Amino acid sequence: MGIPKNILTLYQDGVELKTTLTSVHKGKIKIAALDQATLITPFQHPQDDTDETSSDFSTLETAENAFGIDDRPAFLHDEPPDDKEEVQEADQGFGSMDQSSEEDQFEEEETNEDILLSLMSRVPAKHYAHAINLPRSLVHTLHLRGNFTELKPRKRKKQIFNEIIDRQGDAELPKDHYDCLFTESGETYAFVYKGDIPIIQAFDDIQPHLKVKPRFVSVCTDEVALINLLRFNYDDIGEDEIIALVNIEDVQSSFIITKGTNVIHFSQSIREDLRSPSLLNAISGKLLYDQDLGHYQDITRIILTGEARQIDAKAFFEQDDVSVRVEYLSLNPDKFIIPEDSSESYTDYAIPLGLAVQVLFPKKKDTLLINLLPDYVLRRQKTFKLAWHGLLLLLLIFLVPFAINWLYV
To answer: How many angstroms separate the most distant Cα atoms in the chain?
Structure first.
């Protein structure tokens, strides 16, 4: 599977569906278009309605509800289009979606599949591979005990799988439903999910109406996407800096603690509504609690992503601790090509842009290649290829009529 040159990323958080069209140009990520749509309801996981009490997948020793924490933690190589006008027209159409109009709000028969189909009809699908996020509400992030990095790959994989099964209590977990991150300090984090991925199911539902099948190359967790964006975008991070990468979303927020660009801690989800007056206090309290529990050094820099601008989170954290450098995510012009007429802040597109980094620059040394794309999706996307003996057989079949004709002439 080659590295795609153009990528459509889809990021879902609750009813928000954010999308980006990006490509590689002279070593930079070129942003062609952005869009944001509002779903009718969140793409539902089959267990969302019944697995409310599951707490086997805990990332820390004890979840403190006082901080508002939920203890259930949360695409093919193609040549770029030759017809530039075709791409430009497609990009213009892609950016013109608006699901917030009054007419759409009162369209009783509209469904999530209609919204997704409307989106895909505006994208030059045959030129773009697809990458999607796996929402935190569907992912269990497990902090595994023990240094698995010292084990041989086969033994390590077996022991990790056994520990996941022990923590989950379900021996029927498919082995393509988890992947692991090994940190510089020897810590191991496993990202696990159950059942099918809702947005892929939605694509399957609209497939009869699509001219080209979507080609998925990556399913990535929010945390991994953010880390990849941090490593790709920032050149001014010191090796000893303790950074809190805080992602604030409509449904649930979280943060990642890094030393330099190396992960040292993932937080649990903080289930507070974006408009909740206690959300920022909950995040701040959780930062202090996790710091005390993990015994890492004082945070020196806070980078805010997601919907942080909507609630003026920068002002809160600056007031909370004046000694800490606080900033919203900003894109490095040496790494990204941004449309000249763009007025976007890009803070709230951090995760879909992180997805693009992972797919477009997989060979970079510091790119995390955590991929939870199901095996069945990979299998049905494989193109038919003939080995040398198959080609030889076809050549012989082609030559038989000529040989017979030569014998009887």
So the answer is: 96
Q: From CA 241, how far away is CA 213, in angstroms rounded?
A: 44
Q: In which order are the strands placed within the sheet that holds 188-192? A: 140-144, 188-192, 178-182
Tokens read off for 183 = 């940190």
Contacts (Cβ under 8 Å, ≥6 apart) of 62: none
Q: What is the pTM of this model?
A: 0.80
End-to-end CA distance of the chain: give it in Å, rounded.
48
DSSP H helices, 213-297, are 222-233, 279-294
Distance of CA 376 to the CA centre of its chain: 19
Identify which of 71, 41, 196, 207 has the alpha carbon closest to the alpha carbon of residue 132.
Answer: 196
Residue 381 to residues 216, 249, 358, 361, 387, Cα–Cα distance (Å): 8, 33, 20, 21, 18
Give the tokens for residue 132. 């999607």
What is the Cα–Cα distance from 345 to 327, expressed in whole angstroms?
12
Rounded Cα distance between 244 and 259, Å, is 9
Integer Cα distance of 203 and 234 in angstroms: 34
**199 φ/ψ sector (left φ>0, alpha ψ -120 to 50, else beta):** alpha
User: Tens of pLDDT along the chain (409 residues)?
Assistant: 578 889 999 999 889 999 999 999 999 999 998 888 999 998 875 544 433 333 333 344 333 433 334 443 333 334 444 444 444 444 554 554 454 555 544 445 789 999 999 888 877 777 899 999 998 888 999 998 877 888 888 899 999 999 999 988 777 889 899 999 998 888 899 999 988 999 999 999 999 998 888 899 999 999 999 999 999 999 999 999 999 999 999 888 999 999 999 999 999 999 999 999 999 999 999 999 999 988 788 999 999 999 999 999 999 999 988 889 999 999 999 999 998 877 678 999 999 999 999 999 999 999 999 999 999 998 888 765 555 667 778 778 878 887 787 777 6
Closest CA to 270 of 298, 245, 249, 243: 249
Neighbours of 280 (CB within 10 A): 21
Query: Cβ atoms within 10 A of the Cβ of 204, count?
Result: 13
- If one counts every other C-beta atom within 10 angstroms of the C-beta of residue 222, the result is 28
**Helix or strand or coil: residue 193?**
coil
Cα distances from 21 to residues 10, 78, 194, 305, in angstroms, run 9, 15, 29, 19
**Residue 405, token pair as written in the block:** 């004709």
Nearest to 13 by CA among 33, 34, 43, 40: 43
